TrEMBL record, chain A:
InterPro entries: Amino_oxidase, FAD/NAD-bd_sf, Flavin_amine_oxidase, Flavin_monoamine_oxidase, TAT_signal. It catalyses: L-tryptophan + O2 = indole-3-acetamide + CO2 + H2O. Signal peptide: none annotated. This is Tryptophan 2-monooxygenase. It comes from Paraglaciecola algarum.
Automatic annotation (TrEMBL), chain B:
The keyword Heme applies. Residues 1-21 form the signal peptide. Residues 8-107, 117-204 form the Cytochrome c domain. This is C-type cytochrome. Its main location: periplasm. It is found in: Periplasm. InterPro entries: Cyt_c-like_dom (IPR009056), Cyt_c-like_dom_sf (IPR036909), Cytochrome_c4-like (IPR024167), Cytochrome_c_Oxidase_Subunit (IPR050597). Keywords: Electron transport, Heme, Iron, Metal-binding, Periplasm, Signal, Transport.
Length: 529, 204
């Protein structure tokens, strides 16, 4: 007997699809408000005769957006960037570009062609990331659809089906069929009597039949929905033999693979800027009055009631800058190495943000062999260390293409790759790729890798706080200490996404407005608790 | 590589910001070091990068060579050691000497304590260390024993545990490391290591 209340239903959906699925369902049931984003924060305009000054530390996405909004409000902005380039983790490399890895600097060897680039950091934008989409629109960054999933790509689990890769569409169709068969059986065995009328049970059986492509008597015997072993144009289709229920359950890898394109942040269609994600950075730079000061490494931050003074080193020389406000985009775990006069609690909060580890490889392939296999964009998922293979959906049928040969978050494998030399990584990635695409290695012309936790001035991606630290420090870090504001995806629930960075910037600017309001009321020194 | 020592006094507004009068500028190309080890190599526990300010040049040089030769940082469980090893692999002998000279010229405030331990127990344990490292942790070049005063307590504890567990000093070619591994046999637990580190940090 199954008796499901609406609340239980939501918790089942949540368990199956994660909290994002829960959110969507709740929206459909009218339990939560719709996203009400209506553009960036309007900062209280500055007095043109007495321009306030702002210092931005770090020219990543949060820093660039904060600078742009402050300039719009009439602030005089100085932006300091430790690296030789602006953009932070928004990095696209092409022929001749440098990946400034600590100890292993690499130069990109791709052919000199516009379509041969590698988005080392962010690479896709879903339709509900309204903030980044706002800037793409407002700053004229042309976008195109990026296929983030291809049902013709593969699932591959070394421990399942004899390690043979399986087309995602075949797996999805079989899983639906097998699950529908179970549902049909349960309905047939009167499991839903308490919940549904006899008529509705009949409808449920009909639904499961349609959903899973079952036979008249509720059996799943494979489905033409997953293609055919014969030429479908000229012959009667013959479905692939379905996988067994037991085999499906035996591979825990598949469970995660199932969600590959089902999570809210990956819901289709996604987008990418034409020609590379760094178009976003270039657009910000085009629209900023003041360009970032590059190779400027912050050494000291002195925070006072009157403002913030920052000392930085550039080419062996120290410079000092004073400003009314400071927006700090530096990875928080570096702050303990930078002299400062923050309160012990604020510093403890900064220390609670830990380095994340993301690793990617990109290969230049001399032929777009995946297209000959029916794959036009999307991702194959594998239990191999490389974890994912991404196929470009731009420049279809060009001669060559850049394939993402590894996309790794699993700590066991990120550690493995980080400890290898760049050459060893490319070899290991090629060996993994062979398991999914026999003959993979012979297409590789060159490659480049990026372990974000080893990148100069970054040393991490996708920063994390423990649940406990989050509780203790997150809201504190969202607020300024004096006139010093922390920003960046690290100060968001969405680390590792540009949208998280922009949300943190927006949040900080709202705090600035609050502080300005407080200042006006008190008519004296600014203070926000 | 030009190593310049600049004497710069920072005039800040009203406030009690303590800052060092002596600032040694970072030689070109060595900004990498300060990314993890911090301003004036003051150390950063978040990265597992110890304070290096004012360490003896001879010791820094020896350790950099050890990293380069895989004597140090090669153990798969020594995560930060591996990170450091990767940084050093590409350095020439000349660069190593220059880095060591620069490190010796840096200065920063003595580190604050980060560990809880029993300094009295640590003092007892330290008696056997003092023979080489000196009663005040000042070090002894003749014996190859580095200065301990000014090191972070968390770093001292980590290294003691590394010696104890064979992550450091286990290789035959690591002469001083092997000596230290033998000498540190008095440390038999993480608590011992913490107690000793807490005591050493108190030394002037």
């Amino acid at each position: 007997m199954l008796n499901i209340t609406r609340r239980q239903f939501l918790s089942y959906v949540g368990a199956a699809g994660g909290s994002s699925a829960l959110l969507k369902t709740s929206l459909a049931l009218g339990m939560m408000p719709e996203d009400s984003y209506s553009g960036p924060v309007t900062i209280k305009p500055a007095d043109p005769g007495n321009k306030p000054t702002a210092l931005i530390l770090g020219a990543g996405i949060a820093g660039l957006a904060t600078a742009l909004e402050l300039e719009k409000a009439g602030y005089h902005v100085t932006m300091l960037e430790a690296s030789f380039r602006a953009g932070g983790r928004n990095l696209t490399v092409r022929n001749g570009d440098k990946i400034d890895e600590m100890g292993n600097p690499q130069i990109c060897q791709f052919d000199k062609q516009d379509n041969l680039f590698f988005n080392c950091g962010p690479a896709r934008i879903p339709g509900h990331h309204r903030r980044i989409l706002h800037y793409c629109k407002a700053l004229n960054v042309p976008l195109q659809v990026k296929a983030n999933s291809s049902k013709l790509a593969y699932f591959h689990d070394e421990k399942s089906l004899g390690g043979k890769p399986k087309r995602i569409i075949e797996y999805h169709t079989d899983v639906r069929g097998l699950m529908s068969e179970l549902l049909w059986k349960s309905a047939d065995a009167n499991q839903f009597d308490q919940l549904l009328s006899e008529e509705d049970v009949a409808k449920l059986m009909k639904f499961s039949q349609a959903y899973g492509d079952l036979t008249e008597n509720g059996k799943y015997i494979g489905s033409g929905r997953a293609g055919s072993t014969t030429d479908r144009m000229l012959e009667h289709p013959t479905p692939h033999a379905p996988i067994e229920l037991k085999a499906m359950l035996d591979s825990s890898f598949w469970y995660g693979g199932l969600l590959g394109a089902e999570v809210y942040d990956w819901c289709e269609p996604l987008m990418e800027p034409i020609g590379g994600m760094d178009s976003v950075v270039k657009a910000f730079l085009r629209n900023l009055q003041t360009k970032p000061v590059l190779n400027a490494q912050v050494k000291k931050i002195f925070n006072s009631d009157q403002g913030v003074e920052v000392t930085y080193e550039q080419g062996g020389k120290l410079h000092s800058v004073k400003a009314d406000y400071c927006f700090n985009n530096i990875p928080a775990y570096f702050m303990a190495g930078i002299e400062n006069n923050f309160s012990a609690t604020y510093q403890a909060g900064l220390n609670s943000i830990k380095r994340g580890h993301l690793f990617k490889i990109a290969y230049q392939m001399k032929e777009r062999f995946w297209e000959n296999d029916g794959i036009y964009g999307g991702i194959s998922y594998t239990s191999e260390p490389v974890s994912q293979l991404w196929y470009p959906s731009h420049d279809i049928h060009a001669q060559k293409g850049i394939m993402l040969g590894a996309y790794v978050w699993n700590p066991k494998f990120t550690t493995m790759f980080e400890n290898m030399s760049p050459e060893e990584r490319l070899k290991a990635g090629a060996i993994s790729g062979e398991k999914i695409h026999p003959g993979y290695s012979k297409y590789i012309e060159n490659g480049i890798s990026i372990p974000w936790a080893r990148m100069n001035h970054q040393m991490g991606c996708g920063m994390r706080m423990s649940a406990e630290d989050f509780e203790t420090y997150y809201h504190m870090l969202q607020k300024p200490e004096g006139r010093h504001f922390m920003i960046g995806d690290q100060i968001s629930h969405h680390s590792g996404w540009q949208e998280g960075a922009l949300a943190s910037s927006e949040q900080a600017l709202e705090q600035l407005n609050k502080l300005l309001g407080a200042k006006i009321i008190q008519g004296g020194a600014a203070h926000v608790s | 590589m030009l190593v310049r020592t600049l004497a710069i006094l920072f005039v800040f507004g009203i406030g009690s910001f303590t800052t060092h009068a002596k600032y040694t500028s970072t030689p070109e190309g060595l900004e990498y070091c300060t990314v993890c080890h911090g301003s004036q190599l003051k150390g950063n526990q978040n990265i597992g990068a110890p304070r290096l300010s004012d360490l003896s040049a001879w010791y820094v040089e020896r350790q950099l060579k050890n990293f380069k030769q895989g004597i140090r940082g090669a153990h798969p469980e020594d995560k930060t050691g591996i990170e450091m090893m990767r940084m050093v692999l590409g350095l020439s002998a000349k660069q190593i000497t220059e880095i060591a000279d620069w490190v010796a010229q840096t200065s920063s405030d003595k580190p604050v304590s980060s560990l809880v331990g029993d300094a009295n127990k640590g003092q007892q344990l330290y008696q056997s260390c003092a023979a080489c490292h000196g009663a005040n942790g000042e070090g002894n070049k003749t014996l190859g024993a580095p200065k301990l005063s000014g090191l972070n307590d968390w770093y001292i504890a980590t290294q003691l545990n590394h010696f104890r567990l064979g992550l450091r000093g286990a290789q035959g070619s690591d002469l001083y490391g092997q000596q230290m591994k033998a000498a540190s046999a008095v440390i038999t637990s993480e608590q011992d290591a913490a107690d000793l580190a807490v005591y050493v940090q108190q030394l002037k």
